[in-house]
Amino acid sequence: MDFCCVFNCTNRSENCTKSFFCIPTILLHHDEETKQLSTERKNKWFCAIKREDMNFDATHYRVCSDHFITGKPAKLFEKSHPDWIPNQSMGYEKKLTDISRHKRAIDRQLVRGVTDIIQKKEELQVVAAPPSVDLKDSVLYSINVI
Predict the structure, then answer these.
(1) 3-class DSSP assignment, residue 63
(2) DSSP code of residue 26
(3) What torsion, rounded to 10 degrees, do the Cα atoms 26, 40, 92, 15 define?
(4) How far apart are CA 128 and CA 115, in angstroms?
(5) Read out DSSP for 48-108?
(6) What is the DSSP letter of 16?
(7) For strand 20-22 and strand 62-64, is the pairing parallel, antiparallel, or unpaired?
(8) pLDDT tens, residue by residue, 60-84
(9) 4 backbone dihedrals φ, ψ, rounded to 5°
(10) How far apart are alpha carbons 53 and 138 in whole angstroms?
């Protein structure tokens, strides 16, 4: 039977329809970036849970879906997602994160990306355009006039 390790949470898998998620492990057999990111994430999960009686190396701890905005944790490389660490009803007072804030940030990044592409396309068109020829400055005009 799984139970949620968050302080004052009484959810248990036996009589509950909640989902339970393991505390992330440190991925040792991957590249250095993945190892650092997974270490940071595990540390932040333990900081968010704030239980001094928890063993950092234990693998049996679970967090229920009540502690995530979307009901499940974000993926490892979605660090900017508010559900990267549990943050809802953590047994202590804390400002709640709104999922719409994360969505707006993603939309801004997309708009910036599209704007950058349009600007680069316009710059390429300006560079690729043939220079305008002024006949008065050309050598042929000078020869014909004399």
Answers:
(1) strand
(2) P
(3) -30
(4) 20
(5) HHT-TT--TT-S--EEEGGGSSSSSPPPTT-TTSGGGS--SS-SS--PPPPHHHHHHHHHH
(6) -
(7) antiparallel
(8) 889 998 899 999 999 999 988 988 9
(9) -80, 135
(10) 86
Say which DSSP state 21 is in: E
d(CA 69, CA 99): 7
Q: Which of 40-44, 49-53, 59-63, 82-86 has the lowest mean pLDDT?
A: 49-53
User: Residue 61 corresponds to which amino acid?
Assistant: Y
Please tell me the distance from the alpha carbon of residue 48 to that of residue 42, in angstroms, as a whole number.
Answer: 10
62: CB partners within 8 A, 6+ apart: 2, 3, 4, 5, 20, 21, 22, 23
Single-letter code of the amino acid located at 89 = S
Q: Are 68 and 88 in contact (CB under 8 A)?
A: yes
CB 19 within 8 A of CB 71: yes
First to last CA, the chain: 102
Residue 63 contacts residue 5 (beta carbons within 8 Å): yes
22 neighbors 86 (Cβ within 8 angstroms): no
